[in-house]
Amino acid sequence: MKRANASDLLARQFALVVLLVLSDRLTAFDNKSAVITMINHATDVSEIKAQLQRVAKLAAQQGNQQFSRNVVAMRHIIQTRYSEQLSLAMVASELHLNAVYLGQLFKQEVGRSFAQFLNDYRVDVAVDLLRDSDQDIGQIAETVGYQNSSYFYKLFKKQTGMSPGDYRKAGVLSSC
Predict the structure, then answer these.
(1) Fewest CB within 10 angstroms: 83, 96, 162, 163, which?
(2) How many whole angstroms separate alpha carbon 165 and alpha carbon 42?
(3) Out of 16-20, 68-72, 92-96, 138-142, least confident range
(4) 3-class SS at 160?
(5) Residue 150 CB neighbour total at 10 angstroms
């Protein structure tokens, strides 16, 4: 891309396609939205290349990572019930564990708090829905677990650098 003097926009779109293909094939990779933000804010093609290399390396490392039984159970709850109103206290109660202990364990093993992981996962699902469906953005917000669509818009923009509507309009995801 750099040798062909590709525009930054074309390089970003290509990188997003590569990222989406990688993330669909790597089950341990669960933070597309943060990487999308980094790609969108990259200043040149070499930065975009570096981000993709980092993602591939991170995904490979995460693929080899072993989580404790309790963290695996928490991740499973998030991945299967993300559309529900989940809280650390509720999950801890279901697992018959102390919420403070479980929150610390999750952060230690995953590197993010329960709430951060849940929000990241929800935004990742929303990114997929924006790409793969023509569902209304308010419906997508509800589908991924946000009753307040304004909060969803704010969080989505914070994590990806674009509002959900701008994301869809730009065709960044629909071209995949």
Answers:
(1) 96
(2) 21
(3) 16-20
(4) helix
(5) 9
**Mean pLDDT within 57-70:** 72
Contact (Cβ atoms closer than 8 angstroms) between residue 69 and residue 128: no
Q: Is 55 in contact with 22 (CB distance < 8 Å)?
A: yes
Nearest to residue 51, comparing CAs of 25, 31, 27?
31
- What is the pTM for the complete model shown? 0.68
Query: What token pair was written down for 114?
Result: 């329960």
Closest CA to 126 of 153, 107, 148: 153
30, 73 Cβ separation under 8 angstroms: no
Residue position matching structure tokens 């991740």: 75
Q: Residue 140 burial (CB < 10 Å; 0-12/13-18/19+)?
A: buried
Backbone angle region of 111, left / alpha / beta, with phi > 0 → left and psi within -120 to 50 → alpha: left
- Contacts of residue 138, defined as CB under 8 A and 6 or more positions apart, other chains included, come to 149
Report DSSP state, residue 147: S
C-alpha angle 52-74-28 in degrees, rounded to nearest 5? 20
Percentages helix, strand, coil for the chain (3-state, rounded to 5) are 70, 0, 30
